[in-house]
Design brief:
Layout (H helix, E strand, L loop, with lengths): L2 E5 L5 E5 L3 H27 L7 H29 L5 H5 L2 E5 L7 H9 L16 H24 L6 H6 L1 E5 L31 H17 L2 H15 L7 H16 L2
Antiparallel strand pairs: 1-2, 3-4
Length: 264
């Protein structure tokens, strides 16, 4: 299994397992199948199926088709990756996700770049132009042809990146468990009397906080106390604070303080 090392703002290299090709393929097929099912379902809702419909009917429904079929399909990958923090439904089911090459969650601009480069992977088609089974099959075949190009680019790139990843400076990696909100930097502080211990944490950037969260995740996955300790020392130097807390406890407290203060 391929592993990449990503440098963090604290000069600590974190290791991530690059997502295997078959996982990316199955994730792609799941997402594409969901889009096709959505498309077919909407056509049956509007027209009762894929029977021939008069040109006048097509023209009269053009605006509705674009707004309720084409646009949702066009925005699917962008919206899901932003809302699910680097995952589409297919990626979520296959336990893989997109991360930035700085080790944290991609920024909105990176998601946008990845999405724009999907134009050649599955063409932006407009629902109102397809109203026969034959045309739907042709569309699927065209998409499959473009998929071959994607496979070639992933195969020859150093980090198994597609063109969108190369442009956006992102990579697709494995995640061992189903991604939940606990895997992001955000957590709900339920204590009404919560006491902040390190208010200096707000001096850290979002990228720094993402790095701390990744280090915490990897500690519980691999019990890598050395990396945890190195990051703890580096953070204390940056924030000019001192503590006798264990490294993992210190980093978790920082993350909790950050979430509490950021929500105020």
């Amino acid at each position: 299994m391929s592993v990449i090392q990503i440098a963090t703002p604290f000069n600590i290299d974190l290791e991530f397992e690059i997502a295997e090709f078959h996982k990316r393929l199955f994730a792609y097929l799941i997402d594409f199948t969901l889009l096709i099912l959505f498309f077919v379902g909407m056509k049956f809702l509007y027209y009762g199926g894929f029977d021939e419909v008069s040109e006048n009917v097509l023209k009269s429904h053009m605006g509705v088709d674009i707004l309720t079929i084409s646009v949702p399909m066009l925005l699917y990958s962008l919206v899901t990756e932003v809302m699910l923090h680097g995952q589409t439904i297919g990626k979520k089911l296959m336990n893989i996700r997109v991360i930035s090459l700085n080790g944290g969650e991609p920024e909105l601009s990176q998601y946008l770049v990845r999405w724009m480069f999907k134009a050649y992977e599955w063409p932006f088609f407009f629902g109102y132009t397809i109203l026969t089974r034959g045309s739907l099959i042709v569309y699927i075949m065209i998409t499959g042809f473009f998929g071959i190009i994607v496979v070639i680019i992933i195969a020859i790139s150093k980090k198994n990146q597609r063109l969108g990843d190369l442009a956006a400076n992102t990579v697709v990696v494995n995640t061992k468990s189903v991604f939940t909100v606990e895997d992001t930097v955000f957590m709900e502080i339920q204590q009404s009397n919560y006491v902040v211990k390190f208010p200096e944490v707000l001096k850290l950037s979002d990228r720094d906080i993402n790095t701390i969260k990744n280090v915490i995740n990897m500690f519980y996955k691999n019990h890598n106390t050395e990396t945890c300790a190195r990051v703890s020392i580096k953070v204390q130097e940056v924030l000019k604070i001192q503590t006798d807390m264990y490294a993992i406890d210190f980093l978790e407290k920082l993350l909790a303080d950050y979430n509490y203060l950021a929500s105020k």
